[in-house]
Amino acid sequence: MSENKEPHVAKFVYDFTEGNKDLKDLLGGKGANLAEMTNLGLPVPPGFTITTEACKVYLESGEEPAALRDEVSAHLDALETRMGKKLGQADNPLLVSVRSGAKFSMPGMMDTVLNIGLSDKSVQGLAKQAGDDRFAWDSYRRLIQMFGKTVLGVDGELFEEALDAAKDAKKVTVDTDLEAADLKKLVTKFKKIVKAEAGRDFPQDPREQMDLAIKAVFDSWNGDRAKLYRRQERIPGDLGTAVNICSMVFGNLGPDSGTGVAFTRDPASGHQGVYGDYLQNAQGEDVVAGIRNTVPLAELESIDKKSYDQLMQIMETLENHYKDLCDIEFTIERGQLWMLQTRVGKRTAGAAFRIATQLVDQGLIDETEALQRVTGAQLAQLMFPRFDEHAKVDQVARGIAASPGAAVGKAVFDSYTAVKWSRSGEKVILVRRETNPDDLDGMIAAEGILTSRGGKTSHAAVVARGMGKTCVCGAEELEVDTKRRRMTVPGGHVVEEGDLISIDGSSGKVYLGEVPVVPSPVVEYFEGRMHAGAHDADELVEAVHRIMAFADRKRRLRVRANADNAEDALRARRFGAQGIGLCRTEHMFLGDRRELVERLILADTQDEREESLKALLPLQKQDFVELFSAMDGLPVTVRLLDPPLHEFLPDITELSVRVALAESRQEPHENELRLLQAVHRLHEQNPMLGLRGVRLGLVIPGLFTMQVRAIAEAAAERKNAKGDPRAEIMIPLVGTVQELEIVREEADRVIAEVQAATGTELKLAIGTMIELPRAALTAGQIAEAAEFFSFGTNDLTQTVWGFSRDDVEASFFTAYLEKGIFGVSPFETIDKDGVGSLVKAAAEAGRRTRPDLKLGVCGEHGGDPESVHFFHEAGLDYVSCSPFRIPVARLEAGRAATQSAGSDHR
């Protein structure tokens, strides 16, 4: 066990009266916001918070900080004095909850224990204090159940089965119909389960209960589901969790008590109104677990108008104070409203854009802040297709629209199957009565989630919204049988595991079979087929339009497209591309032209080679004419041929079979034989590090010359037709300036010849890709011969890490992610420490040599939100990405330009 290293902090425990919302790093989100509500004078049950620093010490050393027990004791004494009762005392017990609370919301991923302080003795005192035996024994059985599962590691199903058996014996369907005597027997049964499974008695000492619960919360930070959720949400693993000790208030004291969750706006749509769920005679876990179906929050007005009016006033106060959508947990104890939690609420992508613009219009935030309230990932979600409203469908149920999207897949009824089938390439819908944190891996793997219980604040709904996953909850008409792996829909039809279903998270509708999808209205807007104010979805489109306009005004980075033909170029331009950052000419050599490339590769003489190149020249030229026309007035960066030549030849196995068959049949096979010989001649152990890129241009005479001539002649033709071509020639895979100088000298000669022949002045910039570590390290020398650099981050990542992408992603990346070696794949988000350091160093060195050196990136990272922020900070001029990612890159470039320190709206 390592030495107990305690950080230099003044203390490890803060009373709710001491903190504020800006101390999330220290107090966690829940603790900081409980303190903030206390400061605002809102009705918060008294309590205190153990800091994340204490958790870090515990996780690093395996022991709690030496000072922690005394600090907890001092705060507990103060709490007991304030409440006028002692923790777990026999006659008038103080009970507390022990709740996790990390900096970032991780709903259901870590542990909570309610009713700490109850024992065989104090349960009698609680019954007397409340005047309600049933309530006391219900609270006690809840404590044993939660404590047994969370702290002692007992299988939670054992408690559920005992509870179900008690209801069956009583012939009731809900636990509220169990009487005090039934619950007392259940407590005895639960204690026997604990003894049998945990090998110890349920602790009767209330302080032991609290201390063990605190440790369990600390430990839950590194639980499997918490780590999986952090990887999914890219939350750092070294933050630790705070622990909140809060005096208990009870929503299960009868019909004048209850618990609920409220949102100041609809987290699914962003619309203002009364949104949330309420459950009478219940504790908070009953709501989020979806075990009992709630009533809409609006019904609280008729149940308890006084509490309802007070809640509405508090919600308005909190939204104005936080200047954002707030997610609120509350309890009513015999007519007294208590606030248990508030946080900036998770929301769907559409709601994020709507709410951001609404708050601007209300004067609560400015446009700069609105831009920080949305993300490129959310915009990408809005561009996904939706169900065709005109399609013939078989609707079988309708639940609560918890998280929007159109999801189609095979029904599966447990998390394990969802993951297994998904890894096999199947699209699945996870169907459950209700989800719990153990279902997280299946929820991640599924296209969508469907539950028959729960509301907009259930575990399934909250987690799905956070992940941007389609979700329909509370579809009560569905009878879900997880043991038999089937569900029965109204009318008696049975959906077996593997049957196709479709769910619409925007309407809550559930369909049999596959429903066709149509483009998103946001995509139609970007393509110019819809204008703000001209469609049923105009409110969302208008919100996107406004935020994109502001991002475009603020961003410094320009955004180009990776496009290889006129069709893709025109789409990219509609999406807002400011040029083409990567035209891959090898794509122009496929299809009908492959035969010409084969002839070039098979050429035995200079004449044969020149004949093949002469045949390819007009085809290449026409490609560029079309491309320059589509992007007239905008730069087009053309990369000369990059991949190994063997990629243009038939597969060696297929070709060997063809030759063998022809020989056995004594059929002519001279051409196939020459191809096979060429394939063998060009075979390399590692072709991606072999004869490719600039090396092809140096080894195969005339290849790059032909391409440069095609580019120059196309540019001249467009210019003579009154166009404005802005072609740039990019040499790939350069590792030394000498390679670039040789190719550049030949290119300059060809361009001069075309200028003389056409009488047209051409300004064709010549640059290179920086995709090898040596190129990055000698960028100052290479800049002497290059007018621009474009970082090819795909190959740069491969060569820096020593990875062959196609091989490693399928073999060990999953293990690396699970072990925490990667937080995210370096091919998805740029490796800032390694690859990123080379990008920055090359950019700085290149500009020292050539101050006006233009810098861009054309790898897939150019469309990744987090990477765009890095490229902005590194001082690049543009990013280039696939056409569909252009709006995302534009938005993130604007966000990067306006990012303010400390602004965080996860």
Automatic annotation (TrEMBL):
Pyruvate phosphate dikinase AMP/ATP-binding domain location is 65-293, 299-350
Q: What is its EC number?
A: 2.7.9.1
Keyword field: ATP-binding, Kinase, Magnesium, Metal-binding, Nucleotide-binding, Pyruvate, Transferase
Domain PEP-utilising enzyme mobile as annotated: residue spans: 426-508
Answer yes or no on keyword Nucleotide-binding. yes
Per its UniProt record, the required cofactor names are: Mg(2+)
Record GO terms (molecular function): ATP binding; kinase activity; metal ion binding; pyruvate, phosphate dikinase activity
Q: Which InterPro entries match?
A: ATP_grasp_subdomain_1 (IPR013815), PEP-util_enz_mobile_dom (IPR008279), PEP_util_AS (IPR018274), PEP_util_C (IPR000121), Phosphohistidine_dom_sf (IPR036637), PPDK_AMP/ATP-bd (IPR002192), Pyruvate_phosphate_dikinase (IPR010121), Pyrv/PenolPyrv_kinase-like_dom (IPR015813)
User: For binding substrate, which residues are annotated in this chain's numbering?
Assistant: 584, 639, 771, 792-795
The name this protein goes by in its record: Pyruvate, phosphate dikinase
Q: Which reaction does it catalyse?
A: pyruvate + phosphate + ATP = phosphoenolpyruvate + AMP + diphosphate + H(+)
Q: What taxonomic classification does the UniProt entry list for its organism?
A: Bacteria, Bacillati, Actinomycetota, Actinomycetes, Kitasatosporales
| Pfam entry (one) | PPDK_N
Q: Any idea which positions bind Mg(2+)?
A: 771, 795
Q: Where do the PEP-utilising enzyme C-terminal domain residues begin and end?
A: 542-894
Report which superkingdom the organism of origin falls in: Bacteria
Q: Where is the active site?
A: 459 (tele-phosphohistidine intermediate), 858 (proton donor)
Report the sequence similarity comment from the record: Belongs to the PEP-utilizing enzyme family.
Q: Which PANTHER family match?
A: PHOSPHOENOLPYRUVATE DIKINASE-RELATED, PYRUVATE, PHOSPHATE DIKINASE 1, CHLOROPLASTIC
